[in-house]
Amino acid sequence: MKTEAQRTRLVQQGGKETVALTSVLIIDDHPVVLGGLRRILEDASANLGIRQIHEATDIVSGYRNFHKLRHELVITDLSFQDRDLAGLSLIRRMNALQAGVRILAFSMHDDPVVVSRAVGSGALGYVLKDAPTATIIEALRSVQAGQGYLEHRLATRVAMLSTGRSSQPLGALSARELQILSLLSRGKSYRVIADNLSVSYRTVISACSSMRQKLGVQNLAELIHVAVSENKRRAQWRL
């Protein structure tokens, strides 16, 4: 028997019957973002068929909430305090727990590598935090209907990655490697990175060795230089 959070009903949207999700979980550690998303969902609840809205402020409580209530729709950030891109692992874990869960990544990262990794981890849609309300609602509706959503500009840049015509040096890295590289760029030690990501020390060492090979660098210092340079480039994109 399904819980109330799992029950769905059919609504009419543009002449087509789609499944209206009744339970939504928002995972973000910024109170302003949580409040803003809640207001958007409440204002659009009649059209989207949303009955319940739950919130979590970190990946641990977010996963526990999802594990308990099995929400049909999850909106999650990718970065949480010192755990940059930890949302990628959270997305994978929720998909492993409940196949077919509809997840919308809601992030400040407009790097196509990060977007590609989020989609590859199981996010059905991706929308930037500075997107207008109409775009956020469009993304929610698409994900709700089981369709993917990427804003055209982001979709184009992600497509360029797959064609090999992009100059993204990090395109070959896995989601886990991107997380580790991001923490390295902020001066985190191997041990701290292992603790932050809940992985073994040996896993971090192995990932760094793999990244050196993929990026064509000889040592840790060169690897950190690449990471810092990439962070500066991303910051310039957002100016």
From TrEMBL:
Domain (HTH luxR-type): residue spans on this chain: 166-231
Domain Response regulatory: 23-144
GO biological process, one term: phosphorelay signal transduction system
UniProt keywords, alphabetically: DNA-binding, Phosphoprotein
Coiled coil listed as a keyword: no
InterPro entries: CheY-like_superfamily, NreC/VraR/RcsB-like_REC, Sig_transdc_resp-reg_C-effctor, Sig_transdc_resp-reg_receiver, Tscrpt_reg_LuxR_C, WalR-like
UniProt keyword annotation of Signal present: no
Superkingdom of the organism of origin: Bacteria
Protein name, as recorded: DNA-binding response regulator
